[in-house]
Structures are given as C-alpha cells and as structure tokens.
Amino acid sequence: MKVLVINCGSSSIKYQLLEMDNETALAKGLLERIGIPGSRLKHKKGADKYEINRDVANHKEGLNLIISTLIDEKMGVIRDTSEIDAVGHRVVHGGELFASSVRITDRVIKEIEANAFLAPLHNPPNIQGIKATMELLPGVPQVAVFDTAFHQSMDSKAYLYAIPYEYYEKYKIRRYGFHGTSHRYVAARTAVILKKPLEELKIITVHIGNGASIAAVKHGKSIDTSMGFTPLEGLIMGTRSGDIDPAIVPFLQEQEGLSPKEITEILNKKSGVLGLTRGQYSDMREIEDGAIAGDPICKLAHDIYEYRIAKYIGAYAAAMNGVDAISFTAGVGENSPYLRKNVVTKYLGYLGITLDEKENDCKACEKIISTHDSTVKVLIVPTNEELVIARDTKEIVEKNLNELKLW
C-alpha cells in the first residue's frame, strides 16, 4: 500500500509518499509561500533533489502541483494517481471529539470545522488540504490524524485549569497538548530500543524544536504534557514565550496600549529565545554557538531555555512517581549534544543519571546516551510523525476493507 501523507500549514504543504510494505519514503517535499509571490516546491526522490519555482495561489493548486510532481516522468515515483492507495492528513486540533485517528467523512469534516475556533491558525488550512485532496483524488480513502489525540488520555486533574468551571463547559477551555504524534512515536520507539514492553515503562519524551513540548508517558499513555489550551503554554520556544504570569497580559496591554491581537502576536512571534536575545536570534543553533563563544545574551537565553526543560522533566518524574527513560527528539533535541549535556549534567543527577559523553556526541542518531549503570536511561530518538500518520492510515483503511468483505 502506498500512502500519501499531507501536512498543510497556512502557507505551506509538507508531504511524503510512503511504501507501507517496507515503510520507506519514496519521495518527500515542501511547498512554501502558498498565496505569496515566490512560491517554491522542494522535492526529494531518493538522493535526487529538485526545486520548482512557480507562484501557487491556494492549497488546491499546491496539491495539484505536488501530485503532478509525484507522477512526473523525471521527478516522480509513481506512474499515475491510481497508485496512491490512501491519504493521511495531519490535523492539529481534534478537541475532545477525537481520541484517535479516523476515516474522513462529511461528518468528520464538519466536526473538524467545529473545532476550528480552538486552532484558528491551523485547522482551517488542514481542512482546505482535506477538501482539495478529496477533489483531486476522488474515491481515494482519506484519514485524519490529530496532534491532540494522544493526549486525550490525560486525567481531568491534569487537563483542567483553575478558572470558573463554566468556561470549560461553555468554551472547552482546558489543556489539550500538541505534538502528540511525535510523543507517541518516540515513546513507542524508546520501548523498542530498551527491549521492554511500553506498558511497563515510565517515559518522558522531550520534543525540542522551534516549537517545543514535553510529555509524561506512563505505561504507553500520555498523562500530562507541557503545551496547553494552545501551543503557547509550556517551554520557552523559538518565538513563543511559554509559561508566564497571566497578569502580564493585561499589564502590558495597559502600559503599551496594545490590543488583544497585538499582545497575542508578541507572545507567539516576538518572544521566546527571540525575545530574550533582543530580537537577534530565534534559531537555537545560533544561540548555542553564541553561548559557547561567550556571548552573554546568548548564554542567558540558553541557560533559561535549558532550565525550563529541566523543570518540566522534574515535574513529570514526580507526576509518574518515577521515570525509566528520558528521550530527546525533534530538531534541537536530536541535534544538540550541548543542550542534552547541560540539561542532564546540571539538573538531573539526583535521578541517578550518568551521561556517556562519547555516546552523546552525535547528531540525528538513535541511541542510548547514558552510561550502563545509569538508573534512568537517556536516549536520542529521531521522531517520525509522517510514519505514524501513514501507519494509522494504513490500519484504518485495511480495517474498513476487511469490514466490507465481511458483509
């Protein structure tokens, strides 16, 4: 079975075509600047890389370009669209309606649309991608895989906020969590590496990229996670503030004469390490280089960044009454030995962790980086959200086919 995985952003589409018989990626790519002059498609087939520069007006036009590229005689990997057996879509917010991936129907689309008020920047382009793909590939089964679904196993003590309960009832204000597909994959993969049943392990998954979140995964279930009602809560990120005193919001509005929209823009796009470095850097690679070189601004930003990560790890070790493994993943987590070393050696020694610095000195590898006698194992586990989406899609489509055969 060949599964096309689609991840639509507001002005971008990330995609991957996977052959599920051996779970390999046949082709992958990224279309950027949809609806903006200078649209660009970066497409990769094996070791070959291609770039198409052509203005793309909307998501349907973009998906048409992607599909055309996949069947192109030179750049493509399939003869025609009939070889695409199913499509899996990343959908950011499933609210409380979706605790697992689902086959897309008209009813499911309406329910995703009903959740759009919870993720106004993300769900609308996700829906556009679904509708466009259904038009371009009629009859091909489509599956929605939700970022929030994995965290629906959280107990009310973890997801409710201490605000008037009526706001939860009226507006569903609660902790939802995000990056669920990544946390789910990394936890399962950690168990495989450790050669232990996932159902017996307490794992803290540390997804650190431009966006960042941590999850406490107890016996295969998410019991808590750092992102909340929106992806703004939790860790310091590239441009997001993470946790702040909520009274700061009205204070700044009054002092600076800011509108709600302007303060939201500041907290989401001008804060985080970008704000801490006075607007100079949002890329952790640059901040890390500056910190190592002795730049005081970069060092301060990095110190605060790693400190917040360590605080959440400590909190989740307490929430699970222990921890067996801590797994670093995503762009920074996978590629920064410096960050991993600082977090582990500065703050986590009380857990009985000893870092193997030789093993830690690698990027984008999959391995255990703690010593053999370390009480808690520390790992690097490269994430693979596209594979999770493709697996769920394959499983749901095959299940539906088997059910039809029974009839």
TrEMBL record:
Quaternary assembly: Homodimer.
Subcellular location: Cytoplasm
Family: Belongs to the acetokinase family.
Any one Gene Ontology BP term: acetate metabolic process
Residues reported to bind Mg(2+): N7, E385
Amino-acid positions noted as binding substrate in the UniProt annotation, renumbered to this chain: R90
Protein name: Acetate kinase
Highest rank taxon of the organism: Bacteria
Enzyme class: transferase
InterPro entries: Ac/propionate_kinase, Aliphatic_acid_kin_short-chain, Aliphatic_acid_kinase_CS, ATPase_NBD
Reactions it catalyzes: acetate + ATP = acetyl phosphate + ADP
UniProt cofactor(s): Mg(2+); Mn(2+)
Gene expressing this chain: ackA
Active site (catalytic residues): D147 (proton donor/acceptor)
Main location per the UniProt record: cytoplasm
Tagged with keyword Plastid: no
A Pfam short name: Acetate_kinase
Record-level GO cellular component terms: cytoplasm
